[in-house]
Amino acid sequence: MAVPSGRISRRQWVLILILVPVALLFFRKRVAVLLPAFPTQSMLQEEAALREKRETQVRKLEERVALQDEEMAAVRDLAAPFWRIDDRSVARQKGVIQNEVNKLLARANIRGVDYQVMNPKRNELPGRVHVYEIEVTVNITASMREIGRVLAEIDRAPHLLTWNQCSIAPYNLREPNKVRLTGTLSALVLSADAAEVVFGRTEDAG
Fold it and tell me: What is the C-alpha separation between 184 and 205, in angstroms, rounded?
């Protein structure tokens, strides 16, 4: 018997009744797989809290690094006057300072002047582990103008040189234009280990 146009046959109803539960079951399984991938409100809140915590930690770390950089810059400023010698041999340490003082005297343009830089010695400083002292004896016979140039060059040294003892006296009555300077120059030297920590590397004579 023919089914009037626009009406569903019994066979079609049977197929619909069979297919609908199957389709619902398939849809339910697909949704069950996909649902965990969608973040819930609580998951979003936890993620936001975790992100905020990490940002706070990064900000605090940056502040701490900036503070440490400022403190290290202050330490470098304090250590700037000290000499730095990348040699652990005491003999060579003394030789470096002796050579530097000779260079300073040469820059004072005192050619032909009788001068000596001698007897370098290293002194340990009480209560100072990372700083030591090297002394050299300086004897110069020259005019007061030349002595003045020497003193000016020592003041312009790249690092601090201090007169522990210094005397200027007439040389002799036959040469009234000449005087005799006798003194001890002291250089404070930062140990190689300390210089490496403060400046990142050590340097010879400076």
Answer: 18
pLDDT band at residue 206, thresholds of 50, 70 and 90?
A: low
**Tokens 């046959």 found at:** 9
> Do 114 and 140 touch, CB atoms closer than 8 A?
yes
Under the phi-then-psi rule, with left for phi > 0, alpha for psi from -120 to 50, and beta for the rest, what region is 119? left
Domain that residue 137 falls in: 83-199
Say which residue the tokens 């004896």 belong to.
Answer: 137
More confidently predicted of 23 and 99: 99
Cα distance between the two ends of the chain: 114
Percent pLDDT > 70 in the chain is 78
pTM above 0.90, yes or no: no
pLDDT digits (tens, 9 = 90+) for 18-56: 666 766 666 666 655 555 556 678 888 888 888 898 889
Name the residue among 182, 108, 115 with its Cα closest to residue 150.
108
How many contiguous H segments (helices) and E segments (strands) does the chain have? Answer: 5, 5
> 160 and 116 share a domain?
yes
Please tell me the distance from the alpha carbon of residue 160 to that of residue 188, in angstroms, as a whole number. 7
Task: Examine the domain organization and report whether 44 and 73 are in the same domain.
Answer: yes
Q: Looking at 79, 106, 133, which one is the last position of a domain?
A: 79
β-pairing, 161-172 vs 131-143, is unpaired
| Cβ atoms within 10 Å of 173's Cβ, excluding its own | 6
Identify any residues that bridge with 124 across adjacent strands, giving them in sequence order: 132
CB 85 within 8 A of CB 96: yes
